[in-house]
Amino acid sequence: MKKLKKRFIVPAMVFILSMCALIGLIYIVGKSQEQQNRTNAKLNAMTYAERINGELMEGIGVTDTLKQVVISGDGNINGFYDVAANMMDDSIQSIQIAPNGVVTEIYPEEGNESGKIDLINDSDRGEISRYARDNDTVIMQGPLELKQGGYGIAVRNPVYVEDENGQKSFWGFTIVILKVPEIFSDSVEALSNFGYKYCLQKCASPWDDTYEWVYGSKKELNDPVIYDFDVYGDKWRLEILPKSGFYNNNYLIYMFIGGVIIVLLLTGLTAALIFINENRKNFKRLAVTDALTGIYNRHGFDEQVEQYMRQNPQKHCVVAMLDIDDFKLVNDVYGHAAGDGALKKLAESMKQYFSKDVILGRNGGDEFSIFMPDCTVVEVKPFLKKFTEETRKFYCKGEEHTFTISMGFAEYPVLADDRSQLMRCADMALYEVKMRGKNGCMAYREGERIKSRAKLGFAVKDIIDNMPGAFIVYRADKENDEILLANSELLRLTGCKNMDELLAYTGKSFCNLIRPDEQESCEKSIWSQINGGHSNDYIFFHMRKADGTYISVLDHGRIVDSVHNGRVFYVMIMDLKSLQRHYGDCLELVEK
Prior knowledge:
- Helices cover 41% and strands 27% of the residues.
- By secondary structure, it is α+β, with helices and mostly antiparallel strands.
- About 4% of the residues have low confidence.
- One of its GO terms (biological process) is negative regulation of bacterial-type flagellum-dependent cell motility.
């Protein structure tokens, strides 16, 4: 009987354990498959969004051609119908011109007569047409229902001509009506052939963030992959979703059946692990673009600079390294979302300020690199100085805040033989700027002795925590005296283990450190001293500790204007008993 049990129980246990392992493995593969399908969908969304962008740009190019004809003719366009006929294709409904915003000529004219309207004053088209005119920007309106049937997108390109005095004035619009979906039929057909459901949307106007449906296999997709792109300032969005979803249930069923067979042969687990491991390796790829800022990451930047220097070993060039001053403070005070906003604002200003041949990179954190080819330090120094001095802003909870940057730069081949040495020189110059007070820029000078970076180790937190006394910072606001900072000595004096414990028992209010019957008189005394023209205040009170007991303390505060927090009090708090014990012979202290 025992042998019989062993013959069935042991194989049964092995089978049960193996099946549990197989079920767990199938779950892992399913999640991995979902991730892989999402990755593929993201790549396809990006690829076909760019194709759609290109197809739309081809349509917009018709208006650019007409615009050049108008400008070259000093506001006159001869042979409009011949020009328009040569540019027509199956994706275009009509081509129009609108001097002074009034459509006067349409090709083909037959069936499109109703399109001759005053765009500037039209109830449906006026606002967006005036926006295009006033901002000298191409606008796309639609999709609009066409009287001939179907839908179209109206592209209006404002034209400005110069008079004999060189003054530019608004001439009117060159217009093309693009058929939907014919203008991007190749792209959406390819998406469908690849097994995707899709939804193409655009914002109704440049000032509107609400997306409207343009075309797609479905108006709403459940948890799709989204790719946003711009076409002449108009915001577009492509959503795609595999027709069978991100999970391929048939595949998982087949794997389960195969897995049972492999489990019975005691080889399935190993084969499945190898399969998963190979897939994971296939998923790993090296990206060269920083996802947050859209510029090169460290690897991409180094690769581009190395390539340039390898191809142009004798040409002078400059590398600059910069970072945001007190960036950790921005993250700590306003949160990482605000910090990300500051990083994106800085990257945007770099892309706008520097020419396209300049290589921009984010090394990591708040540190950025700039490579300027075919130039010298003397040539770019004023340019970089001006860039450093620009006012930069980020937003947190609707409020505007400013931040500054520091920059160091160096020249090749004057000071370095290769990229890495050049970047080290620029990096040393950057830290020299930091040690001189930040918010500036300087070039690395050969032979200059850069101070030890160890001095930078004296961070604010290190200094505050090692001050010979209790220190606290709170808002100088009668309605909101929120505690912002306390050093380790203050935590020790109150009997708190950490900052969270201090904030918990005080409710984040400095007033709650004071014994209740003394709170009103202490507050009056503080503000009486401040309102009397003093920046410092002195008070005695009984401070409540975390365990509910009280100690007598002397409060010496100073009101200051903080860049990041407005008006705040910096306060030193001293234990009266300790002062009396050590300085009783020298001081007469009156305890409240």
